[in-house]
Write the structure tokens for this entry.
Amino acid sequence: MRWNVQPENPGPAEGIDYSALPDARGHFGPYGGSFVAETLMAPLAELAAAYERYRVDPEFIAELERDRRHYVGRPTPIYHCERLSREVGGAQILLKREDLNHTGAHKINNTVGQGLLARRMGKRRIIAETGAGQHGVASATIAARLGLECVVYMGAVDIERQAINVFRMKLLGATVVPVHSGSKTLKDALNEALRDWVTNVDHTFYMIGTVAGPHPYPKMVRDFNSVVGQEARAQMLAEYGKLPDAVIACVGGGSNAIGIFHHFLNDPGVAIIGAEAAGEGIATGKHAASLSAGVPGVLHGNRTYLIADADGQILETHSVSAGLDYPGVGPEHAFLKDSGRASYVGVTDAQALAAFHRLARTEGILAALESSHAVAHGIALAATLPKDRHVLVNLSGRGDKDVNTIARLEGITL
Amino acid sequence: MPNRIDTRFAALRAAGRPGLITFTTAGDPDPALTVDVLHALVRHGADLVELGMPFSDPMADGPVIQQANERALARHVGLAHVLEALRGFRASDADTPVVLMGYLNPIERYGFERFAVAAAAAGADGLLLVDCPIEESAGYEAVLQRLGLHQVYLLAPTTPPERRSRIAAKAGGFLYYVSFKGITGAGHLETAQAMAALDELRGLSQAPLAVGFGIRDAATAALLGAHAQAIVIGSVLVERLADARDASQVDAAVASCLPPIRDALHALRGG
């Protein structure tokens, strides 16, 4: 399949200050908000108030900063893929190495922050949902470190295909609860986590892993992840004397993407591109490209683009990467799509797998299958640009967790 | 024309007893039986019926109602069926109030205003949007008001006093108090706590107060019924109805659990 490598990307729309979003009730234009049952409204308000208080609290900021440096391993470098760029023959391809974080993905940027908040709020139990297992591992990791109980909800189908991460969570002391309802994947794990939260809300902190869910999650998760773009912007200026020409990240729920996009949104010269999972091709219906092929609706506490049928029932999605296999997307991405500030492209399973192998062989890096979608588009875009341009790809996670999947897809018995 | 919900609660007030509200899911156990289920509920004591509109991701519901949603969706039950069943019910029941209950996404996909107009024409009296708190409902209220439909709001044990008043000010038809922190059908209802909460809510609003979640038997219904204007029975009914294959089995299933609850509430007359 060929895909449009240089979609229209007009830069910041007139008069929008992207750093000022969302509004006080979590709206990004028509998207976001708090669409939950009444029981959760007060707990969400309590969480929002705590977050607003601590995010500007010097002690909280200092502790978060310390943990990022000594526990997570930040800052992560920007790596120049010299061989790959030469081989592609176009723009220089740069990787923001979020795969080098503790636990192997960007997810810990968020959980380390939410964990500190949970402790300050006096909660002794953490719950989380997970798809690929990366957020589950990142939550279990933080819970272990803070001495909190941790329960992770995971679709039964995902448990099957991400066995290594399930075992990691158990080693970290978490309880992994298989979810058998609905399509038995991430969306159902989210439903189940919400049901747990509504039941145990007094002492439980719900650690949502992506920039979706009701307010304040899309904002809070974005803020904790935006350290990625903040670092990357400063690193580009220090090491290359310029901003990148394009920033590319994969988008499932969209937390790593918002994380690297956020600090570039007000820079008109930087193209912002999200790579969605086109699965077996958008035309086949077997994909997870909510922004490219979905319609606005309400799910999991927010208004956003969704993959749903004509009756408004949420559909099963497909992607080779469990982490992108979600029928919704963070509301800020919905807003960025409509405003034209960001563009979103579909990358198929096959294109992502090809990029995975190419990066492994040219640069010695095993990328997560999720991140391989962004790498695929980075390569495709770089090929159309001159050599003095810079394409920055967020390498959101490492691929060790995916080696079984890749072996199976290629008919190899380990 | 006055709204049937108001008429029914006025009659209950005159009779001096709390009302019995039932919840069932449209299209479950079989779309061909939805109208029979509604009539059976009224026959065996329902004063007001809530008809659930199936959704793929019912995040506020426990396993029993989740499975009812899945069964209905497996038979492609959408809002068109809900409206058709409502029209079928109204053909021989002009008085029992009907509240349509569900999640926003299917309704928005249908078109909110288009749906509201069709629901009013089909004989609905109110709408309960589970995932739409007062903060997000401004756009819907005007539409429903214009059509004479009530928007029923929930109050929860977690709802702080200031917020309760804001919700009460918007109450249409009745206020629905969620008896515990949890999902529908869960087994941890503490009656003493719920009764105390209901007493605290008395006088909050002109609108009658209904209480639901976790009420499974006549004894509990009577205890809570004495502190509210109506009680809601859901999961236990849905459980009984799950295996019904025809109208007579539907009747038997409803007859097996509703009459004792009805009798317990009727016995509170003048109490």
